[in-house]
Amino acid sequence: MNKTVSPFPANRKRTALRISSAVLTLMLGGGFVPTQSPRAAFAAADKFYLVYRAEAGQVKKTKADATIKFEVAGQAITMDYKGTSKVTYAKVSPNGDVTLEDKTESEEYTVNGAKAPAEEVNDDTSTVTLKPNGEISGYKEEKKDKDDESDDVHLGVRLQAASTPIFPAKTVGTGDKWSHDYKASTELGTRDAHADFELIGFEKIGEVNTAKIKITYAESGSDAIAMKGTVYVDVATGDPVRDDFEATGIPFGPDGTKATGTFHDERTDGGPYAANKSPQPLTEAPKAVATAKADDKKPGAATVVTKPGETKPIEAAKPPEPKKDKTIDETVKEGFTKIPGLVTLYRKKEAGKDTIYAELPEDQLGKMMMLQATASTGTAEQIVAGDPINDIVFKLEKIDDRIFFTIPNFFYRAANPEIAKSVRRSFADGYLQAFKIEAKQAERKSVLIDISDLFRGDLAQISAAFAGGTSPFLGMSGGGGFGMDRDKTFIKEMKNFPENLVVSTQYHFQRGGRGFSATLADSRSAPITVVYNLSVLPGTTDYTPRLSDDRIGYFETGFQSFDDDAKRDQLTRYILRWDLKKKDPNAALSEPVKPITFWLDNAIPKEYRPAFEKAFLIWNSAFEKVGFKNAIVVKQMPDNPDPKDPNTPSDTADMRFNCIRYVHSPDNAYAVALFRTNPMTGQILNASITVDAGIVRFTKVEHQKEVDPAQAFAYGAGIPQEEERLRQKLAANTQSGGASFSTFSGLAKHNHADPRSCSLAHEAKTQAHFGYHALAAQSATGTLSPTDMKAYTDQFIIEVVGHEFGHILGLRHNFIASKEYTLAQLGDKATTDKGGIGASLMDYNAFNIAALNKKGAAYYSTNIGTYDRWAVEYGYTPIPAAKTPDDEKFALAQIAKQSGRPGHAYLSDEVADSFDPDVARFDMGKDNLEYQKQAMNLSRKLLSTLDRRVPKNGESYWEFTQDFNTLLGMYARGAGFATRFIGGQNISHSHRGDMNEKPALSTVSADTQRQALAMLVTNVFAPDAMPVPKRYYSKLASDPTGFGADEVPMLDRLSSIQRTALSRLFSATMLSRIANNEYKAAAKEKPVTLPYLFQTVGSNVWAEIPAKTDVNPLRRNLQRAYVDRMIDVALKGGVNADAQMLAWNELRGMKTKLVTAKAVPTLDTYTRAHYADSFDKINRALDARITLGQASSGPNINDLLSLLMGKTAQDGATAAAQTESNI
Fold first, then answer.
1. What span, in angstroms and rounded, lies between the C-alpha atoms of 1172 and 1169?
2. Which of 5-19, 274-288, 552-566 has the lowest mean pLDDT?
3. 693, 717, 743: which is the final residue of a domain?
């Protein structure tokens, strides 16, 4: 390893210290010829005199393996090295000193399992001179790569000294021990040190007779290196044949990082003497130990001086006495506390060191286990209390006398034995850690491993959230360059139970500099407590997985099965659900053996606890339908729980208990369901819900500092994203002559987030505040009474928490469920009491405006809906006769085929907020468009009277401004929603033969599309469309606590709503949808057409021309935007060809109208100038079309800009080009 070994990218400065393969070889010796069993008697003598000696000019080849472990910014790094070297015995001095030169021949290494890029071997050479007894008398390194950093810590020679045995000046045999004290040498770079040696025995390795020597070496002082291991030396020459070492305290980089390492080295060819000239072992001290080549007769050449009887052949060695290893009981005898439970632990805390051993019965090895890491405390930025950090399914298995932490690759399976062999070879398991077996206990058939660092390290990838990366669960991102502080990380508590082990670890993350944090006491310090829960996964014989169905929305786990080559879809999908079994299988209604029990956090305010409890218990009616009584049980965590009580949680992160926790963040509102599953079967094992206090706070006040209502027209169908998507599709057509079905389906797929992600509470806070305004406006005081406010808040809590508990049961979002009832039904108390305000709590339900002024009708769902009951029926109906998932298929199919019944429709995140207007968040009613109309009318009304209610006397006008932003945003949202109906289509997951089977794809009715367009014209484009009284403009204030003042440019903000509405209507996606729907329409239908769109919008935008009236500033901006959009459609590629043609036609028609309009003498100066400017712009665009259509080598971009925008644009482009050339 002559190169610098670094976990960082190759183009960054190499900061980690190099570890040379020459160092490894010299440090660990070399030589192994694996031809015979390791133990063989080979000498009659009991003792030998060991000495280094060689013949100058001889060569040997070696290979080395090393593993180095260290941490960078809290991340564990493991580097594995393999290399080969050529070692030359360059010189043998008259005094017996042997000089060796080691040159690297090949090397490769991996970082955390990833192979590092191959680099050219630098042929670095290390030279060491050894005295006959093994002491180092000379050392140097020659580096071909001049960019390599110098070895300032003298690592090479220090490791060489640590691993080279010092031979005593006497004969030694089995069991002999000796020691050596090293004096520091500034010339060599060595340190003061002490080493103990023991000759374990004699072994024959291949054809080489060796002495096995145990070495324990430790330097003195700070930054000390320590090593221990064994080396096999040739009895005749002292040359190392094979060795294995462990090292600690290896300096690794300039920042003081310390590494640990394991090293193995062996000789593969050659040696210190020619094969036929190897000397005999010495049984007494020789008179001279130097030698030279046998044919070297030059004056001064040294020769071996021997006398008859000084040496004799080795015939048979006394076999070494077997070493008795310590048992587990002997190892943990002194100072350890036994902690029995799931895994028997032994813990010893001494002088700041915390040692934890785990005793593993051999019959437990190979069993599937789960390690769950959960945040017990949080920082509110990187991690929130209760966040799941990681779930690791693993098994412990014994490989080569070590215990491996193995991640099984269970995503690929086969039942066929022959195919299963191939699958295992093709998809390997992963290994995260390996533990040395510290001791064994034969009578208990168990082994002991050291797990001291298992719960103090970063196995669960906790540091990702603090280092600015992403944690494995839900893509949780954190940030800010924190690194794990090992010194302040420690285990707080361990609880060992028969079925699980709970470990609480106090982590500390730190960073340098003067960062900013809104939540940390000091921005440099981020402490967090993480609770680990270790348990054995339930056996597959106790639980029957249930197959999923695309007509009913459950979260899924799955695997690819290779058993049936004829199957179109080789994925097997299981739903996620709890294992509910009846106590009395024969009873029609029975309590479950183990109900789904949830504990309410004692931090939940007492006044809201009944609402939280009800949110869980309303689901029991669905389980009663399938035969379970009290399937869901809610308990209250005591205000002062006893930590020693095994039946009551004292920490909401203790995954033995399902908890709903209540947390606070500075300026947020969210709720999230967190469940843990067995990924092999889909069984939900435990769960929790985290609710932020903001869901209560934001029903009263919305901290929305500024608003961009124009975003309402891009929500769920972003204009830039859609146009880019369509351009890609058309480009593919152009290149290939047509797009394949897979290309079209891939491009059309909705870009949705992880389906486990839920933002209901966060997004619903605006709905909650909107509802508060609607209710407050009905009051004479402009506010709600405490009683009414409490009732309203309770409903919102039940909606949000009930939704999250639906996730806990395994259910996914259902964004079409809001179509269950008419607006008239939604104003009826009996309807909303029985079935909520939609078919499912799993929708994102909007505030029910139909309940206003309707006594008793619910504003939010306080009960589950039709779909919820049907979904629970599919997931939890007992099928006793079934023994396998396939046995359940027929019974489940009878349930799933009811998908066409009212309230049973299901469509989720994959298609939400796309081209089906009925599959959306925060919509409502069978006639969704009518709901949007009423919501816009309500927003307009509330806006018009807002200044009567807000601000109260003594309050800032900033309160008024925030409420104004909310209501204007809701108004724009209704208009933006209307655009989804235009060109829209409805989706269905019906299967052939289902009850009330629906077409897979159908166009939204033309009447509905025309109504939606009329709604936009009236509420966005009409001259009196914008609902903002001018008296408000002087009341809109900036945040008095913020930095900088807001000028509140209302003309620009209102114009942006109109401009983005136009962009949405005339986007490439919208134009394509309308054209395709028109093409698919039957002959008798009267579809919405592109000409209808252009004529309807255009005539309204230019309404002042036939009326011969002045055009106000807002309307002038709208008309400019219309001209710009028509030019954009006409000139840019990537749009429907008919739409492009119609845009040209519209420009020509506008030009004709403007000729007359700009000549009307009664118009004001602004209007006449505006008409003239619009005429010129259109005229340039039409001229540009002529230029673009002429045959030429290509138009000059500046000429086109001049034609379109005038000379100013050309000058600007020229200046921009000059600026770019200077960069």
1. 5
2. 5-19
3. 693
The answer to whether position 686 is within a domain reads: yes
Tell the residue number behind the tokens 């023991």, with chain if given: 198
* Closest to 605 (Cα-Cα) out of 697, 702, 701: 697
Q: Is residue 339 part of a domain?
A: yes
Kindly tell me if the per-residue pLDDT of 15 is higher than 70.
no
Q: How many residues does the chain have?
A: 1223
The tens digit of pLDDT for each residue in 839-878 reads 999 999 999 999 999 999 999 999 999 999 999 999 999 9
Lowest mean pLDDT among 699-713, 921-935, 1001-1015: 699-713
Per the structure, the complete domain to which residue 361 belongs is given by 328-536
Whether 375 and 385 have beta carbons less than 8 Å apart is answered as yes
**Whether 39 and 140 share a structural domain:** yes
Q: What is the pLDDT of residues 1153-1212, one digit of tens each?
A: 999 999 999 999 999 999 999 999 999 999 876 655 544 444 443 443 344 444 433 443
**How far is 400 from 624, CA to CA, in rounded Å?**
54
Token pair 């769902």 in the structure block, residue: 861
How far does CA 937 lie from the centroid of its chain? 43
User: What is the Cα–Cα distance from 1082 to 1084, expressed in whole angstroms?
Assistant: 6
CA separation (Å) from 523 to 384, 515, 665, 924? 16, 6, 17, 45
Query: 959 and 950 in contact (C-beta within 8 Å)?
Result: yes
CB 1055 within 8 A of CB 1117: yes
pLDDT over threshold 50, residue 41: no
CA atoms of 362 and 765, how far apart (whole Å):
54
Angle at 1168 between CA 1162 and CA 1170, to 5 degrees: 150
Closest to 860 measured CA to CA, from 782, 781, 927, 775? 775
pLDDT (0 to 100) of residue 29? 40
| Residue 586 scores a pLDDT above 80 | yes
Q: Quote the tokens at residue 1198.
A: 């500046």
726 contacts 1072 by C-beta, under 8 angstroms: yes
Least confident piece of the model among 207-211, 848-852, 1004-1008? 207-211
Q: Exposure of 1039 by Cβ count < 10 A (0-12 exposed, 13-18 middle, 19+ buried)?
A: middle
| Digit-coded pLDDT (tens) for 134-159 | 999 999 887 655 545 455 678 888 99
Residues 529 and 580 in one domain: no
Residue 473 has pLDDT above 60, yes or no: no
- Whether the CA torsion 475, 480, 481, 484 is positive or negative: it is negative
CA quadruple 991, 997, 1003, 1007: dihedral, nearest 10: -160
Q: How far apart are CA 847 and CA 861, in angstroms?
A: 10
Confirm whether 141 is domain-assigned. Answer: yes
CATH number at residue 189: 2.30.230
Asked, for residue 253, whether it belongs to a domain, the answer is yes
pLDDT at 667: 61
- 3-state secondary structure (DSSP) of residue 1125: helix
Cα distance between residue 213 and residue 205, in whole Å: 14
Co-location of 575 and 456 in the same domain = no
The total of structural domains in the chain comes to 4
Of 220, 251, 270, which residue sits at a domain end?
270
> Residue 17, exposed/middle/buried by CB under 10 A (0-12, 13-18, 19+)?
buried
For residue 311, give the nearest of 40, 97, 45 by alpha carbon.
45
Q: What are the percentages of helix, strand and coil residues in the chain, rounded to 5? A: 30, 25, 45
- Check: CB of residue 784 under 8 Å from CB of residue 718: no
Between 319 and 722, residue with greater pLDDT: 319
Provide the 8-state DSSP code for 715: T
Q: What is the DSSP string of 307-376?
A: -TTS------PPPPPPP-PPBHHHHTSSSPEEE-SSSEEEEEEETTEEEEEEEEEGGGTT--EEEEEEES
* d(C-alpha 453, C-alpha 371), whole Å: 15
